[in-house]
Amino acid sequence: SSIITPSLISKTDLTLKDVIGRGHYGVVLKSTWKHRDGIEIECAVKVLTQSPEKLVQEIVHMQKLSHENIVQLYGVCLEEPVLMVLELCDGGSLAARLKDHSKPTPLVTTLLKYAIQIAEGMRYLETQGYVHRDLAARNVLLTKDEQTAKIADFGLTRHLEPDQSLYEMSQNAQLPFSWCPPESLRYKKFSSQSDVWAFGVTIWEMFQYEKEDPWMNLSSRMVLEKIEAGERLSKPLYCPQEIYKIMLECWDFVPQARPNFTILTNKLKGFEFDVFDLDKK
Ligand code: ATP
Q1: Residue bearing the CA closest to ligand 1, atom 5
Q2: Which of 4, 81, 151, 182 is in the most buried spot, having the most CB atoms within 10 Å?
Q3: Residue 213 catalytic?
Q4: Ligand 1: which of 4, 16, 20, 175 to mutate, judged by most atoms within 8 Å of the beta carbon?
Q5: Which residues bind ATP (predicted)?
Q6: Would the CB of 14 count as within 6 Å of ligand 1?
């Protein structure tokens, strides 16, 4: 797929339509963007009502990213209020899809396909030196045909300098603590290895079909205590043993002992056939 360079978009080229989502900091509207030569492109427009700092962070990082499994930033509109024009992912969030009982339950093969796609997007981020810090099923969006999963929400993302492998959080911001490894909870240290831990929790959410939140009803302190005592989230009922084994590798106490996203992608791809057999039974 081609690399897209985000552009400066004029508000007059945008037609905002229905609200398709709400976040903590603003709303997302289904829209059309009148592109060059009068071509109309369907898109999602994010309007930020609060916390401009988070939006700026998100724009700064997203404008440099272009990958099949990352929600593409088409451009920004810098007149107030600032708008982000994004690739439309009409299938909604993966978390919402797993909870939606009006549609058929995704097969194990479909979940594996999404897991591979998320790992590919994360591998791209890892090789580009980005730490996402908020990977979770709620931040993975699906295309309308539900064939492709794309990583979204880069509001907490940080870029690491070439000689840097860790980001240390300074302010006391809110953490998605049930997705965080011990070094993030205890020392506020984030790295690609902490994203790997969150990836393990994300695939746990998927195979759990969002029936339960990870570490439900526990405080961040209680989660840390359990993890430090060696406890881990238990195997979801319909999760193949091989995939649970990968989750446990992602949840190694020692960050350097966890597989990176290249290893994870390759391991998951190796399962494709075995798990397909499992669905047929
Ligand atoms: P936060 O509140 O931390 O910013 P969030 O993901 O809830 O996180 P938004 O990124 O503003 O907030 O998105 C809100 C909702 O809008 C999402 O849950 C999703 O349903 C929808 N949404 C966001 N981006 C897109 C997109 N590109 N295409 C389709 N729907 C989207």
Answers
A1: 23
A2: 151
A3: no
A4: 20
A5: 46
A6: no
